[in-house]
Amino acid sequence: MSKLTATASCTAHAATADRTGEVVPQALLVQRVTWLAALAQGLSARIVTARWNAPDLDALACGVGPDGRALPSKGWMAVRRLGWGARPATGVYVCDRVQRCAQEQAARALRLALHRRALLEAIVATWPHDPGARTDAEWHALRAVLPNGATPAQIRNRTRQVRAFLNEHGTLPADLTELEQPPDVAAEIVLAAADRQLLTLERTGTRSARLRVRLPLTASPACGKDWAWHVLPITLPPTVPAQATVCTPTLRVTQGRVRVDLPFQIPIGFAPATGHVIACGFDWGLNTLLTGVAGQLANDRVISDGRPLAYDASGVSAKLHRLRAEREHLAAKHEHQERLLVGMTAADPRVAELSMACQKVGVEHERLCARIRRLNKALAWSAARWAVDQAVAAGATVIYLEDLATLETRGRNARANARLSGQVRGQIVEAIRHLAAKHTIAVVTVPARGTSRYCPRCGEGTSVLRHCPAPDRLAERGWKWAYCSACGLSCDRDWAAAERIVSRGLLGQNATRTDHTTGVRTISKVVEGNVARARRTRKPVRAARRARRTRTDLLPQSAARDRSKNRPTPKRPARTKRAVDNAVNNAVDHVMTSSRVPDRRTVPAPPPAGGGQRPAGHAPKPGRPTPHRTGHVRNSHHRTGFHHAKATPVLTLTKHRAAQSRPRPSELPDSLRELQRIQDALSEQGREPGSAQS
């Protein structure tokens, strides 16, 4: 058993003085937390600025202290062993635990700079002749010296940064300290390095916790009497389970409120990397955000259930495009106003009005950026929750995704990949890993090259698909539909790609590699194989409904036994009001039935307790399994959350399990059969089912 760590953001509205019991209002609490964060920020900034040079970064990178011992893993202990402490201002008293927190924050900033430094050294050492178009040999040389965890976005951004430095100075940067200024330190207090002398944290209930922390009473405390204990009651969000263990938080002030970033740990099981039989594969589609299939490995062959899974976020994507266009417009307007202010003198009467307008535009720009970030995050978690729910419903033990590092923007895919990149595919992958770990489901990435090009049904990676606009326009060039001239496959392009992804994952699972630093699992070896689609059997309810429409049902027994055609075929019984009334009152079996789904509940609803309209809903169907959660999207069972996204409902697939028998109409109780006949008779008469009196 291992533990899954996550972070929940909470808000502390008020606090209580520990000794006097006085209630501290929110405004005063915000002020005191701001003073504590400012003290820690000042100490951390001094350490980072003083050690922003090549020799000190080399000393931190080597991992060995001046005494020859290895540096501890905790940042504040490593900083103290190197002798990189910082003193507060003269006359300001800061306890040792606050200095620990400041040193921990500085160590994290410097260790993060070491990764950027290693990436910069690799790019400079293999600087190509044309940075905009590296050859295959130059890419191979660069990947050989890149640090672990380097992404294509980081390589692209660092290359642009080095090229701008080269154009300005005429030479390549010698070190990261020459290329960048010391990083800014956030105004927050990292309490992970503190102990009981600075804070205590305990969980008091399923949705509540109690944080006891020492805060300064003034901006510049002179002695220990200027510090006091405060008790902060915290309301935990619903994302924190009851069995989770809360950890030491981080305090910060955002928009006039005290925010508590509270990490928590959940015990989870171990998901093996190999030995999987049932899997779900998802493709970063051009038609939808996510397109997936469920596949089963049987005798070294992958069999799909023939049901595509789609998460369409085109509505949310269009909204994000509109918000980004508005953001760019506000940014350009703000920059223009700033340039105008620089060219004006202080005596100009237009300065005050322009300054106020520039400030308003800046505030609106920040609000718009925050709105885009929240929408991106909500979309990522909604898509990830939907994908994990589909895997749980299919009984899958692994989820295969395309490796984001191998995606290339070529031809027409450039615009689509840019659109999907704006929807934070990296956040979706991290959310899928987080949610899948709770269900003990492994998440593995496979190479993305060629998944949409080759046919998943034949050729094992040799038959090239023809992309066209629609199945009835195969001669035209397009991108939405895929057609194979060799085997006749005609399906959605993303569906075919998802089948190839699940095939590569199941057939190549023995080549899975796990990064021991991050725990990310990847398959770099491409193993091709054909995918067969298994059609599910028809539901027994449909066969039973058709059996009711035989000659035995429609004609008397004497006429049914007469098989000769010497006489004309008798007509069907007339649909008269008297026949319907007789069917309702006497429950006659030979009246025609209808398979129309009732629009409202067939069973009379109970009378409302407090008055008002009588409730109604869909008719309950016996034997139907309870639907799973669907990621909170439209056209699902919950009908909450994103109303601009459409997704395939999460249904339990019985293909990979024992078939679940459903009761036939003849096996239903007599009361339900009678109600069904009444409903069918009313439907044939043309009356609304809801108008029938109970």
UniProtKB/TrEMBL annotation:
| Alphabetical UniProt keywords | DNA-binding
Basic residues bias: where?
A: 533-549, 566-577, 626-646
Family matches, as Pfam families: Cas12f1-like_TNB
Q: Where is the Cas12f1-like TNB domain?
A: 426-500
Q: Which InterPro entries match?
A: Cas12f1-like_TNB
Q: For this UniProt entry, which residues form the secretion signal?
A: none
Q: Which region ranges are annotated with the description Disordered? A: 531-694
| Compositional bias per record (Basic and acidic residues), positions renumbered to this chain | 664-677
- What's the protein name? Zinc ribbon domain-containing protein
* Taxonomy of the source species: Bacteria, Bacillati, Actinomycetota, Actinomycetes, Streptosporangiales
